[in-house]
Amino acid sequence: MSEFNQDAVRQPCKVAFIGSECYPFVKTGGLGDVMYALPRALIRQNCEVRVMMPLYRCIPDKFKEKMVYKGDFMMDLCLDGRQFYVGIMELEMDGVIYDFIDNREFFDWGNPYTGLWEDIPKYCYFAKATLAVLNYMEWIPDVIHCHDWQAGLVPVYLRTRFAETPVGAARSMLTIHNLRFQGICGIPHMKYWTGLPDYLFDYPVFKQNNDDANMFKAGLAFADRITTVSKTYAEEIQTSFYGEGLNDHLYYHNSKLYGIVNGIDVDIWNPKTDKLLPATYDSADAIEQKKANKRALQEKLGLEVDDSKFVIGLISRLTDQKGLDLVNAIFQEMLDDNTQVVILGTGDPRYEGAFRYYESVNKGRVCSYIQYNEGLAHQIYAGSDALLVPSLFEPCGLTQLIAMRYGTVPIVRETGGLKDTVEPYNTETGEGNGFTFDNYQTDLLLDAINRGKAVYFDDRGRWDEMVLRDMAKDVSWENSAKQYLEIYEELR
Ligand code: ADP
Ligand code: GLC
Questions:
Q1: In which order are the strands placed within the sheet that holds 68-76?
Q2: Within the chain, which residues score under 70 in pLDDT?
Q3: What's the CA gap between 94 and 352, in Å, rounded?
């Protein structure tokens, strides 16, 4: 290799992250965590990262006040060439640059997601605007790393409308965080808003089920690389059970499909320094201090204060994905005089109602906190003995990773990232990180919980060893960030 080329290789890799949410600005689930933590981990690997997301109204003022105006222009979008305002507001935080796309017509609603009819135009606009902004700012990344269906059109625009523009030199990666959500509508609606040519609206790109157009499908077809957030989910989504109608499409594209497991930000999630905890701890004092956190949690939530109880936590969006019909079916059976259950989540009214009901008939033993509450989440991770994640499908799952970091033993179904991150407890050797079950069945979930209780009550020494082993497990982003970087390097 010539000297010149060696120099070129040493240039930091430039990556633009494009997605619909990012902690601490807006977060509805794990995507927000990943959009925050992965760029930071990449910066530690010497990458240059810009994160691009919408300027939603719900972003707290304390962030908006720090944003700097970087320019604006008009952009055409629809088939009839309608013009839309694109404003750029910028913020730098710990070495990561965040560019917020400003347009009140699209982003001035209460929540990021309001319903597909509005969301399709919103994210058509967003995808096109991000590429236009990169050209406008003359910041051309090596790789544009897109996340979920909301950024699905970016790879499509990149190779069509933007192919002959400066940003057309970039390569693209599209990460699937959750295949359940895809951005589907009738072909005419999609054609109108994207303004893209007719030939794309056939089966290899947008079209499905005779007359629907699918944004995620189109993005997956055009992306240079597809990744998803665990190796197991990368396999699962090529099957009809998990493929959400795109299994054949993903199977066809599987030579560019990779599974890279998520990590968590181990600075935010650190029981030693966590200011939200009543009692901080590390492995030296975890067993005692977790009891103090348990008592504080019980007191706060109106449960009987007794640190000998087995406390099962559940922190989740309350949706079918999370296996809550199983939990609902065995709720009374998993309770006994020595067990308490704490639920934190919002979502499907069916589950919200069911969990409220279980609280009302089990006062002092069950707390259902139907809310989104960061602080309480930290306290539940620290104060529980076990965390329940019995998902129907789980691309990665972060709650089991956070739980382990806090010495809380996960009870999970063996699917997606849960399977890849929780090694089942082995009664012979005493090794493993948690309790697992395979088929999606109520009796198997109950059995896993009972196996957990048996070790907790009858073999505490081994339980405590597992607590410490879980805390010592590497759940950071470092390894996975390296794997992303390898693919970026391959692409540029
Ligand atoms: P998903 O993205 O499918 O919702 P993940 O496990 O990847 O699931 O991520 C969920 C994230 O959202 C975790 O950081 C978890 O702590 C957080 N979370 C979920 N529900 C709540 C809630 N009600 N209050 C606070 N945090 C929550
Ligand atoms: C999705 C998945 C979850 C994953 C998260 C971050 O919301 O449901 O399993 O951890 O994205 O990748």
A1: 68-76, 83-93, 96-102, 48-54, 14-18, 143-147, 171-176, 225-228, 257-259
A2: 1-10
A3: 38
pLDDT at residue 1 in the model: 45
Q: Which DSSP state fits 277?
A: -
Residue to substitute in 228, 316, 384 for testing ligand 1 pocket (most ligand atoms within 8 angstroms of CB): 316
State the pLDDT at residue 9.
56
Cα 451 to Cα 446: distance, rounded to the nearest angstrom: 9
User: Per residue in 454-478, pLDDT tens?
Assistant: 999 999 999 999 999 999 999 999 9
Provide the CATH number for the domain formed by 286-474 in this structure. 3.40.50.2000
Q: For residue 476, what are its two tokens?
A: 């950071």
Distance 39 CA to ligand 1 centre (A): 19
Of the candidates 442, 400, 450, the residue with the CA atom closest to the CA atom of residue 420: 400
| 3-263+478-491 is a CATH 3.40.190.10 domain | no
Entry pTM: 0.96
Nearest C-alpha neighbor of 323 from the set 345, 296, 302: 345
Q: Which residues pair with 172 in a beta bridge?
A: 144
Tokens of 472: 């010592």
Residues near 228 by beta carbon (within 8 Å), at least 6 away in sequence: 175, 176, 177, 179, 234, 237, 257, 258, 259, 260, 395
Examine domains 3-263+478-491 and 286-474 and report if their fold is the same. Answer: yes
Helix (H, G, I), strand (E, B) or coil at 251: helix
Answer for the pair 172, 158: CB distance below 8 angstroms, yes or no.
Answer: yes
CA distances in angstroms from 277 to 10, 48, 294, 305, listed in the order given: 43, 34, 10, 17
Residue 29 beta carbon below 6 angstroms from any ligand 1 atom: yes
177 lines ligand 2 (CB under 6 A): yes
User: Residue 387 in contact with residue 404, Cβ under 8 Å?
Assistant: no
Please give the distance, rounded to the nearest whole angstrom, from the Cα atom of residue 29 to the centre of ligand 2: 7
Question: What are the CA-CA distances from residue 22 to residues 32, 142, 249, 353, 466 (Å)?
Answer: 4, 21, 28, 29, 33
Hey, where are the domains in the chain?
A: 3-263+478-491, 286-474
Give the residues across from 228 on adjacent strands.
176, 259
Alpha carbon of 315 to ligand 1 centroid (Å): 6
| Residue that the structure tokens 């082993």 belong to | 469
394 CB less than 6 Å from ligand 2? yes
Closest ligand 2 atom to Cα of 416? 9
Q: Is 229 in the pocket of ligand 2 (CB under 6 A)?
A: yes
Mutate to test the pocket of ligand 1, among 317, 318, 324, 371 (most ligand atoms within 8 A of CB): 317
- CA dihedral sign, ordered 62, 65, 71, 76: positive
